[in-house]
Design goal:
Blueprint (H helix, E strand, L loop, with lengths): L2 H22 L5 H14 L4 E6 L2 E3 L2 E3 L4 E6 L3 E6 L6 H14 L3 E6 L9 E5 L4
Parallel strand pairs: 5-6
Antiparallel strand pairs: 1-4, 2-3, 4-5, 6-7
Helix pairs in contact: 1-2
């Protein structure tokens, strides 16, 4: 997917996440935000996959390690959701690993446990796209 389209998709995801946060506010479980954000994205006409399996390839063998992407939007943007006091470097490392393993190059880390959602969103890219 080209960069311009990725930018459109990430913009739509951020808009949908803000709508969910305005409605629900902070304090719920990640699973509630995931379900509501998936619904909101689908309502906006985007293709969303929830809890998509992410296998690891080791020495040519595919190994199911139990990794799951919270949301994969339009088959190209990974959305990792959190409901934590603050985002930590390990959360960014997790998303970067998912980007590397999946072959996707853009992802959003969204922490719903904030007063203003824009303070809880980080856009990460992997590779040279």
């Amino acid at each position: 997917m080209e960069k311009e389209r990725i930018d459109q998709v990430t913009g739509a995801i951020i808009g949908a996440a803000i709508a969910v946060h305005r409605e629900l506010g902070p304090g719920l479980l990640e699973s509630a935000y995931e379900a509501c954000l998936a619904y909101e994205l689908a309502e906006r006409g985007l293709v969303v996959e929830r809890q998509k399996e992410l296998p690891v390839t080791y020495r040519g063998i595919t190994v199911d390690c139990g990794y799951r992407i919270d949301l994969l939007v339009e088959g190209a943007v990974i959305v990792e959701l959190k409901a934590v006091e603050r985002l930590e470097p390990i959360h960014e490392a997790q998303l970067l690993s998912y980007l590397k393993l999946s072959g996707c190059w853009a992802g959003l880390l969204v922490n719903f446990n904030v007063k203003v959602l824009k303070n809880g969103i980080r856009r990460l890219v992997h590779g040279s796209q």
